[in-house]
Write a structure and sequence with these properties.
Number of helices: 12
Helix content: 25-40%
Largest sheet: 9 strands, mixed
Bound molecules: 5'-O-[hydroxy(phenylacetyl)phosphoryl]adenosine
Oligomer: single chain
Number of strands: 21
Length: about 450
């Protein structure tokens, strides 16, 4: 059902009006950061660029980037632009290296966050009268509370069940007649599977919409979830540094995610040189918060790889779309000189019948040589079949991966249930190379999950 929520009005603004609004807000946010954040003022002064020189949106290219390292170096409160009395909430996200990064919100920031989450849920066709199972983790992670307040403000009924306790989740889904679920895609796959074991078919329950994000997932994964769960699966994107969930979301056309451009200004840059790329080119997403008070982020390097679509969307929203994020600039695995992304592996595996969307990638190093093993679970039917079926599947998976990656990798078929299930962000890559031997300078990977 196509519904229109009044909060969604900015999604449909004429582009010229949107650009004028963005410029106005950009000037304000840059002035605020200049006046209140020492690091930003110092960087602008070094460039002899005063905020007053922002005359058109393209002038943003004169501003310095902000990186995750800046957040770490100024830990915990160094990038705040509001005094602590005006800050009403903190969240934190764990990095790969020790210290978390801390993010802050004023009352107005929380209102903006709620409003973009209302728009996101409305774009997925969720409305008042829906019963939403919010299985994103509540706590320092932004997923739980972000989705919670958006859902409540939309007028839906929220069940703040948080992540984990899977059997209880299934009871809640069934008994409370849940119609929409918010969680990571990997957790939904786990829920469907566990429900089956308990004799519950998610397909036959009233749940019709899934709002999935916080980790990359492929179109093959979408097909699996839509078929096995009897739902329509929507992709939602966001990151703590910018606000949390609600930066961008799919509409019913499911072709790219609409960015809430009145609050988040997107650019695509070459991850190596930082040069701004034209619409349609793939590169690193850089985001500027246009209305954040407590912690404005100017040209934040997300490390997420995508491209912007310039064409209008048939849904009528005028806010630009970005392609789904399949990878990050720092999750590339270099294996014997070949670049491999975990998302390529997921797509190749799910195209082979008999393989399940439970897999793990294990990297090892022996005598200076990197090796990759892909462990993939097989369906109970194949597993209990004759040895011949397993051998045939093993060969098919090996060929599918070699074809997709241009590289021979070891495939291990795993028994049903042997790979650990995720309740939040899935950990797909296990890198044992630094344990096996000192890292090789040509090899770099960061696990997909940074939580
Ligand atoms: O994951 C916020 C969020 C919560 C988004 C719930 C959507 C739903 P962080 O923990 O700071 O925040 O992690 C942000 O997760 O830079 C991406 O690399 C990745 N990510 C988030 N959403 C998606 C998505 C939350 N839909 C980081 N597709 C981001 C692919 C995603 N990657």
């Amino acid at each position: 059902m196509m519904t229109f929520h009044p909060a969604s009005t900015p999604d449909f603004l004429p582009p010229a009006q949107m650009r004028a609004l963005q410029l106005d807000r950009l000037r304000q946010v840059v002035s605020r950061a200049y006046d209140r954040v020492a690091l930003f003022r110092q960087r602008l002064d070094e460039r002899a660029f005063h905020p007053g020189r922002l005359r058109e949106l393209r002038d943003i290219e004169n501003l310095p980037f902000t990186t995750k390292a800046d957040l770490r170096d100024t830990y915990p409160f160094g990038l705040f632009a509001s005094p602590i009395e005006d800050i009403v909430r903190l969240h934190a996200s764990s990095g790969t290296t020790g210290k978390p990064i801390v993010v802050a919100y004023t009352r107005q920031d929380l209102d903006v966050w709620t409003s973009v989450m209302v728009r996101a849920l409305a774009a997925c066709g969720v409305h008042s009268g829906d019963v939403i199972q919010n299985a994103y983790g509540y706590g320092l992670f932004t997923g739980g509370l972000g989705a919670h307040y958006g859902a409540e403000s939309l007028g839906a009924t929220v069940i703040p069940v948080s992540g984990g306790n899977t059997d209880r989740q299934i009871m809640v889904m069934k008994d409370f007649r849940v119609t929409a679920i918010c969680c990571t895609p990997s957790y939904f796959v786990h829920l469907i599977e566990r429900a089956g074991e308990l004799g519950v078919s998610v397909r036959d329950l009233p749940v019709r919409v899934g709002v999935f994000g916080a980790e990359p997932w492929s179109d093959s994964m979408r097909r699996h979830m839509e078929t096995a769960g009897g739902i329509q699966a929507f992709d939602i994107y966001g990151l703590s540094e910018i606000i949390g969930p609600g930066v961008a979301v799919e509409c019913p056309h499911q072709h790219g995610l609409h960015i809430f451009e009145d609050h988040f200004y997107p650019e695509i840059v070459d991850p190596e040189t930082g040069r701004v790329l034209p619409d349609g080119d793939e590169g690193e997403l850089v985001l500027t918060t246009l209305s954040k008070q407590a912690m404005p982020m100017i040209r934040y390097r997300t490390r997420d790889i995508t491209s912007l679509y310039a064409e209008a969307c048939p849904c009528g929203r005028t806010v630009r779309r970005m392609a789904r994020i399949g990878r990050r600039s720092d999750d590339m695995i270099i294996i014997r000189g070949v670049n491999v992304f975990p998302s390529q592996i997921e797509t190749a595996l799910l195209a082979v019948e008999g393989a399940l969307p439970h897999y793990q990638i294990i990297l090892t190093r022996e005598k200076g040589l990197d090796a990759m093993e892909v462990q993939v679970e097989v369906t109970p039917e194949v597993f209990s079949d004759k040895i011949g079926a397993l051998e045939a599947l093993h060969a098919r998976l090996g060929r599918a991966l070699e074809h997709a990656l241009g590289l021979r990798v070891a495939v291990t078929l795993a028994a049903p249930h042997s790979i650990q299930r995720s309740e939040g962000k899935a950990k797909r890559v296990i890198d044992r190379r630094s344990i096996d031997e000192a890292p090789h300078e040509n090899s770099a990977t960061v696990p997909l999950s940074r939580k």
